[in-house]
Amino acid sequence: MIRKIICMLLALCVTLLGMTEAAALGIEATPYSQDELSAASYIYGDVDSNGKVSTDDALSVLKASVGISKLTGKGFVKGDVNYDNKLTTDDALYILKKAVGIIKKTPVENLSASAMNKRIKEYVSSEKTEMIRLVNPYNVLPSTWNPSVKALKTKTSKKFHTMAADKLDDMINACNKKYGSGKLWAQSTYRDYATQKALYEKEVQRWKNKGYSDSKARAKAATIVAAPGTSEHNTGLACDFNNVEESFSKTKMYPWLLENAQSYGFVERYPKGKGDITGIIWEPWHFRYVGVDAAKEMNSYGWCLEEYHYYNHL
Ligand SMILES: [Zn+2]
């Protein structure tokens, strides 16, 4: 019965939208500029993730907004198409407009990496969760960043974040139990800001010595050594394994990590085919701790960390 009423309401919406817009239904809808209406966020209207924004999506949001049903997980996030952190009839209305073609879409895939990262940056500054902290050239750690680190048990000369050091040790031990002692080891882990800066400045100088201007030398150097504050190794949550080479992907440990790392809270941070988003080539040796929940979510959706933030926070 309730479903019938809602369906009727939606059908009425469709009929009225063209001529009278939302006011006729008593739904408060803030007028959006054309830019906002065609923003990439609109993909969030696809709450059932079936690849298209339809009246079903609007119906789901409408039901959730009036408390008849619940949207959980990603659907809920996606349902909030106007980013006000609430799922309301406004959202249902916008999805409906999209579904019936009143609003055109700009697929999220058309966003450039810089545009996506600019959007991410807006909330990263207030991001409190260090565990999923995004660090890249667009989201730079402050020079005062000083994570709590401790020595790994499997390699006492290497330091890792205190929240994840035991997990990394456990993962390495589990892998080596299967493939043999010493097969997997942590090669490069925590690097403090000052060390990163020294490495970077050394690389800058190398290019300056070749005759490059300061700015060009800095840009060139950044493609080889991450500028200070832009390397995940500065968080204490990233680990490069073994010889830090692509051939690591040919070892038995690599597929084992792909399958099991999430149970320890780790993900392959720079996967194959994500370079246009991460800005980093495929690095099969570089794993990042994000916690078990985020790791499983990223893997199930096939997201890199930028995408994880993008889809969860807009
Ligand atoms: Zn690395």
Strand adjacency order, main sheet? 3-4-6-5
The domain count comes to 2
Number of helices: 13
- Relative helix content: 40-55%
What is bound: which ligands? Answer: zinc ion
CATH topology of the largest domain: Muramoyl-pentapeptide Carboxypeptidase, domain 2
Secondary structure tally: strands: 6
Largest sheet entry: 4 strands, antiparallel
What is the terminal-to-terminal distance? Answer: 34 Å
Q: What is the approximate shape? A: globular
CATH architecture descriptor of the largest domain: 2-Layer Sandwich
Strand content: 5-15%
**How much is the average pLDDT?**
79
Round the Cα radius of gyration to an integer and report it. Answer: 24 Å
Q: Regarding CATH, which class of the largest domain?
A: Alpha Beta
Spans of at least 5 consecutive residues whose pLDDT stays below 50 are: 14-42, 106-110
Query: Structural class, from helix and strand content?
Result: alpha+beta
The ordered string of helix (H) and strand (E) elements is HHHHHHEEHEHHEHEHEHH
